Amino acid sequence: MHDLSTTRQAVVAFVILKESYLKEHGPDGLAQQLRAWVGEQIGPIARPRDVYIVGELPKTRSGKIMRRLLRDVAEGREVGDTTTLADTAVMSVISAQVR
Q1: pTM
Q2: Please, which of 12, 15, 54, 64 could form a disulfide with 74 given CB 3.0 to 4.6 Å?
């Protein structure tokens, strides 16, 4: 178990929603609702510091999610090598949203 005060890491969620859900409910306040829901279901320690609703996640050509790139963005670091991504533009969109 890591102590947040020494590692400076926190839970951050990148969420993809179905278009039908967004049309019905809209994105307003959804991130706060998701944070609260996680806190209720798992516990306050698991509540994400930030929730980002994105259209797509960075995936390799074989379909694996590039968690390293998401971690870089969430921690404010320069995004590393993206040459193995199926769509390199997705990281630009996510980076802009996080900033």
Answers
A1: 0.77
A2: 12
Q: In 3-state terms, what secondary structure has residue 48?
A: coil
Q: How far is CA 38 from CA 12, 30, 34, 51, 93, in A?
A: 12, 12, 6, 11, 25
> Which phi and psi (to 5°) does residue 84 adopt?
-90, 0
* Residue reference for tokens 């307003």: 28
Please compute Rg for the chain using Cα positions. 15
Tens of pLDDT along 2-40?
A: 445 456 678 899 999 888 877 777 777 888 899 999 999
- CB neighbour class for 63 (10 Å; exposed up to 12, middle 13-18, buried from 19): exposed
DSSP label at residue 79: P
**What pLDDT digit, counting tens, does each position of 53-75 carry?**
888 999 999 999 999 999 999 88
Helix (H, G, I), strand (E, B) or coil at 11: coil
Candidates 38, 61, 80; CA nearest to 30 is: 38
Task: Sketch the domain layout of the chain as residue ranges.
Answer: 54-99
